[in-house]
Amino acid sequence: MLKFTPPKAGKISPALVTLIGLGIVLAILLGTSVYIVDQTEEAVVTRFGKYISTKEPGLQFKLPFGIDRSYTVNVKAVQTEQFGFRTLRSGVSSTYANQTGESTMLTGDLNIVEVEWIIQYRVVDPKAWTFNVMERTATIRDVSRSAINMLVGDRAIMDIMGPERSAIEAAGAEFMNETFRGYGLGIDVIAVKLQNIDPPAGVQEAFDDVNKAEQDMNRLINEGQQAYNAEIPRARGERERLVQEAQGYATERVNRAKGDVARFNSVYDEYRRSPEVTRQRLYYEMIEEVFKDEEGTVIIDRNLDNFLPLRNLGSGTSRPASPAPRSNQGEGSLSSSGNAGSQGGR
Question: How is residue 92 annotated by DSSP?
C-alpha cells in the first residue's frame, strides 16, 4: 500500500502579515474617513451621535471607524407629495390611481366634494430635517390634509370650484409653512396646487347642469355689459353735445341782446342830441332794409303831380328823367313800376 505525504507549506513571514494588516486598516480608514458631497446636497455630520457641523458640496473628511457619521440631504431638489391620486407611470401617457379616502371632503355648505392636490417643498435646514422629526413624510401629509380640509370646510362648493381656488392655494401654503416652522421640520412649502375638484359621481350630471347655467348667465351678463358700454357712452356724448349747443345758443343770444341794447343806447344818445337828423337816418335805414332784396322799385315824391318817369321798357327798370324833389319832411311815397305809371297819368 502506497503512502502519500503532502508537501509541507512554506511559513508566512511576520512582515507579510503585518503588511496585509496595515493594508486592511488603511482601506478601512480611507473608506470611513473620506466622503464626497454632491452639488445638490449638504452633509450633516455627527460625532458619537451628536451634531457637530454641516458640510458643503465637495470632498470631505471625518473621523474614521464610525466615530463621525455623515447624513447627506438634498437641499436643491423640489420634492412633491400627491393627495387624492398617485402617479403609477409618468411619461407621454401617464397613468394615475385615485385615492378616494383622502380626497373626499365636506364643504362649508354641507356638500361633498372630491379634491385632488399636490404640494411642492424644498429642504432649507438639513440639521432640522435630519433630527427634529422622525416621521417626516407622514407629518407632511397629515399637515397638508388638515390644512386643505380646513380651507375647503370654510367655503361653499361653488366657490371652491370657481373663484376661491387660488385663495385656497395661497392660504394653504401659508398655513403649512407656519405649522412646519413650529414643528422645526426644516422645509419650505413652495406651492400648493389644486388639481381636479369634482362632486361625487352620483351628482356629477346635476353639477354639470349648474355649471352650464352659470356659464350662460355670465355670457348674458357680458353681452349686456357690452351693450351698455356701447350705448351709454354714445348717449352721454349726445347729451354733452346738446348741452354745449344749448350753452352756445344761450351765449349767442345773450351777446346779441347785449349788442342790441348797446346799439339802441347809442342811437338813443344820438337822438337826444339831434332828434331830426336821427329820425331821418333811421327812416333811410329802415327803407334800405325793407327794399334791399327788391328789384324794379322806383321811389317818387307823393306830392309830385303829373310826373311820368322815363322807363326803359326793355329791361323793366325805371329811369326818372329828373331827380324827384324831396318833400319838406324828407319823406317819400313808394310804388312799383305800374304804380309810377298810374301816378303820372293823373
Answer: S
CA 143 – CA 179 distance, rounded (Å): 8
pLDDT, tens digit (0-9, with 9 covering 90-100), for 229-253: 989 988 999 999 999 999 999 999 9
Total domain count, the chain: 4
113, 160 contact by CB (below 8 A): yes
Strand partners, 41: 74
The Cα 306–Cα 54 span in angstroms is 140
Question: 64-113: per-residue pLDDT in tens?
Answer: 888 899 999 999 999 999 999 888 777 667 777 777 778 889 999 888 89
Helix-helix angle 275-290:204-273, to 10 degrees: 130
Which residue range(s) make up the domain with 206? 202-273
Distance CA 105, CA 82 (A): 16
The reply to whether 174 and 223 lie within a common domain is no
Rg (CA), the chain: 56
278 domain residue, yes or no: no
